Amino acid sequence: MSSIFEYLSYGEFTRLVVCLSLDLVEYVIPILLTPFVGDLFDIIGLGIALYLFGWMGLLDILELIPGLDFLPINFFTWVIWMFTRRWGTIENTFSD
Q: Does residue 6 belong to any structural domain of this protein?
């Protein structure tokens, strides 16, 4: 039986759990989808993303756009971060 840690390092797994938790909390607690309380939570999530992913955490600013709260933006940020971490920059990946 294989372990998740064969594919992800502990730091990568921890970042994934934090991102999934931030997205899940928004879905489970409906008050976080309201304009003022939800925006405060999104700003806190943006700070966490900036800490975890550096400049790439700025993708979480999409959470502040009305209507995009239903998308798992934190998870998408983690996926893009993993893509660039594993395979280098996007330009190097798609070059001929």
A: no
